[in-house]
Automatic annotation (TrEMBL):
Its EC number is 3.4.13.-. Pfam families: M20_dimer (PF07687), Peptidase_M20 (PF01546). InterPro entries: ArgE/DapE_CS (IPR001261), Bact_exopeptidase_dim_dom (IPR036264), M20A_pepV-rel (IPR010964), Peptidase_M20 (IPR002933), Peptidase_M20_dimer (IPR011650), Peptidase_M20A (IPR050072). Belongs to the peptidase M20A family. It comes from Desulfitobacterium hafniense. This is Dipeptidase. GO terms for biological process: L-arginine biosynthetic process; proteolysis. Gene3D superfamilies: 3.30.70.360, Zn peptidases (3.40.630.10). GO terms for molecular function: acetylornithine deacetylase activity; dipeptidase activity; metallopeptidase activity; zinc ion binding. PANTHER family: ACETYLORNITHINE DEACETYLASE, N-ACETYL-L-CITRULLINE DEACETYLASE. Its cofactor is Zn(2+). It is an enzyme of class 3 (hydrolase).
């Protein structure tokens, strides 16, 4: 039953929710393993943000618990658990912002800041949905538990620890993707390929990317054995696509190490490499046209042919696809070539009906062609909840009733905390047609979308847990 009364309560909480998102965005909750301490396993920024959010939950009248700084939970009601899994950690801000990235600036009806959309805005929308249900005195037959994660953007160590301390809800949703609803999530590998070698004659350094799950927007190359004029001419003759540039750094003290080239591309989420322009790949393509040694030329050719070919695994002979979840994707997220050797990390999202070994064996075989060792850094198995399950149908009904839009379930390459729950799906907050700005400069959440998400989440909780 759609509850209009609930919407009125949420409209009354509008200013409070906006202010909470602004305040939460002001915490630079980026993982900082150089400054860990008891209660701050991922650094002080994440700890402070977690403590602040739990304190807000307490002020709103809920039971709260801090699980040793690894996660938090905010609860209402009693009975069987219904889980809502959000996260408070964010990826590094990166460059290219028009407003300070941790300001929570409001302009043109949007809240700007790293984490506004991924995932502080939606997590707080779920919290305020709980508040509206509480204020409306609506009886619930389940215990609603909002779980606050703190390591979603990295290795999910928070959830590994959480599972050792608390019961995991069987059923629930993660407000950390898009509407209408995501019922299938591809498996995710982060694979490191590396080898050691002696210093090369010309290639001193190729460095780009900070995270496997982000398309690198810049890449630095240091070269020896070329004149400035020669490289300047090569760059001027080279045709880069729109949005991609290659420039020689101006003279600096490091000149004796070599000439520095900076390639700039367009960042994007690693699950959608085709939406970005990978600066590392354009650097490698440019380098293929230079007069390098045989060893260097073979290395660059391999890199261009393997990780550098296609967005869907073509270069590694793993261009798989299936009906529930579509095509495999592959992103070259981190590149580090230096005088000691080569190391790079790829992010692979594989379809839900495939097994991990079907991915690992071909990639390892390709790596062996040039003596690279492969190491699995992380692996999240694929996850799939049937479209006709009560969870999916209840949530889609809430979405349609509140928004008036058609509800349907689909699959993604992104990995959300929905995978933590045996029956978990990703649900909002991005509406169909809204731009995908997570992990991008000027990340924002539209205020009207924030309020609408809050209303959908409140109705969803009612559909799943109402008496």
């Amino acid at each position: 039953m759609h509850d209009e009364n609930l919407n009125q309560h949420i409209d009354g909480l509008r200013d409070e929710l906006i202010k909470a998102v602004q305040d939460c965005v002001q915490f630079k909750s980026v993982k900082d393993m150089d400054h860990v301490s008891p209660g701050a396993p991922f650094g002080p920024g994440i700890r402070d943000c977690l403590e602040w959010t739990l304190s807000l939950g307490e002020q709103l009248g809920f039971e709260v618990k801090n699980i040793d700084g690894y996660a938090g939970q905010i609860e209402m009601g009693s009975g069987e658990l219904l889980g809502i899994l959000g996260h408070l950690d964010v990826v590094p801000e990166g460059d290219g912002w028009s407003v300070p990235p941790y300001s929570g600036t409001i302009k043109e009806g949007r809240i700007y800041g790293r984490g506004a959309l991924d995932d502080k805005g939606p997590t707080l929308a779920a919290l305020f949905a709980m508040k509206a249900l509480k204020d409306a005195n609506i009886p619930l037959k389940k215990k609603i538990r909002l779980i606050l994660g703190t390591d979603e953007e990295s290795g999910w160590e928070d959830m590994d620890y959480y599972k050792t301390k608390e019961d995991i809800p069987v059923q629930g949703f993660a407000p950390d993707a898009e509407f209408p609803l995501i019922h299938a999530e591809k498996g995710i590998f982060h694979l490191e390929l590396s080898k050691q070698f002696n210093p090369l004659p010309h290639l001193i350094r190729i460095q780009g990317g900070e995270r496997a799950n982000v398309v690198p927007d810049s890449c630095q190359v240091v070269l020896k054995g070329f004149t400035r004029e020669e490289l300047a001419r090569k760059l001027s003759q080279y045709t880069f696509p729109e949005g991609v540039t290659g420039d020689l750094e101006s003279l600096s003290g490091a000149e004796e190490e070599g000439l520095v080239l900076i390639f700039k591309g367009v960042g994007a989420h690693g699950s959608l490499p085709q939406k970005g322009k990978n600066a590392v790949l354009y650097a490698l393509q440019f380098l293929a046209g230079l007069d390098l040694s045989q060893e260097e030329a073979e290395l660059i050719t391999w890199l261009n042919n393997r990780p550098g070919t296609g967005f869907f695994g073509e270069g590694f002979n793993i261009a798989f696809a299936d009906e529930p979840s579509g095509k495999l994707s592959l992103n070259l997220g981190i590149m580090d070539l230096n005088p000691q050797g080569l190391r790079f990390v790829i992010d692979i999202r594989y379809p839900v009906t495939f097994q991990g070994d079907q991915i690992l064996k071909p990639v390892a075989a390709c790596g062996q062609e040039i003596g690279l060792e492969m190491k699995v850094l992380t692996h999240q198995k694929a996850h799939h909840v049937p479209k006709d399950s009560p969870l999916v149908t209840s949530l889609l009904k809430a979405y349609s009733d509140v928004t008036g839009l058609e509800g349907y379930a689909f699959a993604i390459g992104g990995g959300t905390y929905a995978k933590v729950l045996p029956q978990g799906v990703a649900f909002g907050p991005l509406l169909p047609g809204e731009p995908e700005v997570i992990h991008c400069p000027d990340e924002y959440m539209a205020i009207d979308s924030l309020i609408l998400a809050c209303k959908v989440y409140a109705q969803a909780i009612l559909n799943l847990a109402g008496e």
